[in-house]
Amino acid sequence: MTTSRVQRCSSGPAAAAGRAGLDDERAWRYVAVECERCGASVDVAKFSLQHTSVQWSAEAVLRCTEFSAQVAEGGTSALIATCASLRASIEAAVSNGRVEILPP
Questions:
Q1: Which residues is 32 bridged to in the sheet?
Q2: How far apart are CA 27 and CA 80, in angstroms?
Q3: Confidence of residue 88 (pLDDT cuts 50, 70, 90)
Q4: Domain ranges across the chain
Q5: Which pTM does this prediction carry?
Q6: pLDDT tens sequence across 2-50
Q7: Cα-Cα end-to-end distance for the chain
Q8: pLDDT recorded at residue 9
Q9: Are 46 and 101 in contact (CB under 8 A)?
Q10: What's 101's DSSP letter?
Q11: DSSP structural state of residue 67
């Protein structure tokens, strides 16, 4: 996969603040979740059952097997709505309590 066809996303300021140990008044934090299929790691915050914020790094986009398959077929990762494998990993992390649902 070539990097020119990959949507590059940087982690948000909340994720950076959490990693740097800076004080943050928000009740929620991003939590690293690793895809059980390919091992791509993303930062996740869950605000409700329906609202999930996922911060992808360039490394995670390149590692994602579903994104790689789409790009190999001539697509671009920027047009992929979600990775089903990662979604399942996030749901498992919510179920086992690693990711809490905390309104903003």
A1: 43
A2: 30
A3: very high
A4: 31-104
A5: 0.72
A6: 443 333 333 454 445 445 555 666 667 899 999 999 999 999 999 999 9
A7: 36
A8: 37
A9: yes
A10: B
A11: H
